[in-house]
Amino acid sequence: MIRRIQYIVYIILIFGVGEAMAQEESRIDVNQAVENPALVSAMDRVAREGSDEAKDELLKQLLQANYLAAMFTDGLKVSSDDRNQQTIEKGSTFGVLSAESAGKNYLVLFTDWKALGQYTDQKVSGWILPSRDVWSFALQGNTYDGVVINPAHNALPLERPMLEYLSHHASQLP
Predict the structure, then answer these.
(1) Which of 55, 61, 101, 103 is most buried, taking the most CB atoms under 10 A from its CB?
(2) Which residues contact residue 105 at a Cβ distance below 8 angstroms, ignoring those fewer than 6 apart?
(3) Distance of alpha carbon 12 from alpha carbon 107, whole angstroms
(4) In the chain, helix, strand, coil percent, each to 5?
């Protein structure tokens, strides 16, 4: 079941600052499509062979990737100034695509737009998140029991203990 979780704009502002810093650190180019061929390959390899070497490579790629989260922006109130700079207004809300399975709620993430398009035909915007921010966001509070990456093809579910592991190791990266 696909779910839409609503958030108040202060979350966007908190993560917007963190995202801006993370974009600088991880060199996210928001004008270039998010693609993760090495992560997709590592996910496929673990599904095929399941070797320790394949799992190690998958962990490495999970920590290095940038992800797409699907956002519903119909609740955003945006204004523009003379320089065409946009500001999200107080009281705005946005939805983040999540999925429920066996009574658990998962943040749904994608490796690229193609994977997102295979999962939903709803009108969404992409929220680019470096791995460091993904683990932090998913672990904040008790909204999510985990994440699932590319749920339409070769889905990779990650429960909270794995997110904690990834969060710890992401904080140790330069």
Answers:
(1) 61
(2) 3, 5, 98, 99, 143, 144, 145
(3) 16
(4) 40, 30, 30
Whole-number percent of the chain with pLDDT over 90 = 51
pLDDT of residue 154: 87
Cα 56 to Cα 3, 53, 103, 130, 157, distances in angstroms: 32, 5, 30, 19, 16
Task: For helices 160-170 and 131-139, give the axis angle rounded to 10 degrees.
Answer: 140
Section 19-34 average pLDDT: 54
Give the predicted TM-score (pTM) of the model: 0.77
C-alpha to C-alpha distance for 128 and 118, rounded to whole angstroms: 18
E strand map for 40-122: 66-72, 78-80, 86-88, 93-101, 104-110
Which pairs count as long-range contacts for 18-26, CB under 8 Å and 24+ apart, including other chains?
Answer: 18/133, 18/136, 19/128, 19/129, 19/130, 19/133, 22/130, 22/132, 22/133, 23/128, 23/130, 25/130, 26/66, 26/130, 26/132
